[in-house]
Design brief:
Rossmann fold, 2 domains, 4-stranded parallel β-sheet, 4 strands, 42% helix
Amino acid sequence: MKELCYTLLSDGSSDKALIPILTWLLQENQIECAIQSNWADLRRLSKPPKTLSARIISSLDFYPCDLLFIHRDAEKELPEKRIAEIREAVEETVIKTVTMPPHICVIPVRMQEAWLLFDEAALRMAAGNPHGRQPLQLPDLDRLEKLPDPKDTLHGLLSQASGLTGRRLKQFSANERVHRLSEIINDFSPLRALSAFQVLETEIQQVVKTQGWCS
């Protein structure tokens, strides 16, 4: 296999921050060929699909791939419920379309931002102030999946790390910095302590083995 192409279908545009994590996981699990990633941007379609099944079909039409990652934040629901929703949508998709590539559920507990709250040095760099000394209280790893609002926590830490005040702080875009943060982090192995991340990596390992993509 010379190249592996995958597509990420996510809840929203901010979830593009998952792409470096997914690429890292594939590389960690015996994918040594070139990896091409796409985020399924369906917002500009004249009639953006609303149901998950319709979104899957549009994603495959416009972003054909060898592997489809389907993301849903657990938020206040159990991960099992989100997985069931995805499986039901996939079953509907199989009925309506001819080709369905292997798919993997991506279900961070609460929100994907929880998976970016562990690397202080990268966080300071993403905030544009790598040598800042503002005290940052990153949550302990064993608390990440229990945070009520990881997005708010991450945005607050990025703002603090920037060292900006007044008008410049108001102009600071935490959303943009989140994407930068995920690109800066080069080792996501600490996340292996989290249950949802363990489930994701196990699914990737199974698909890689089943499809014969092992090096």
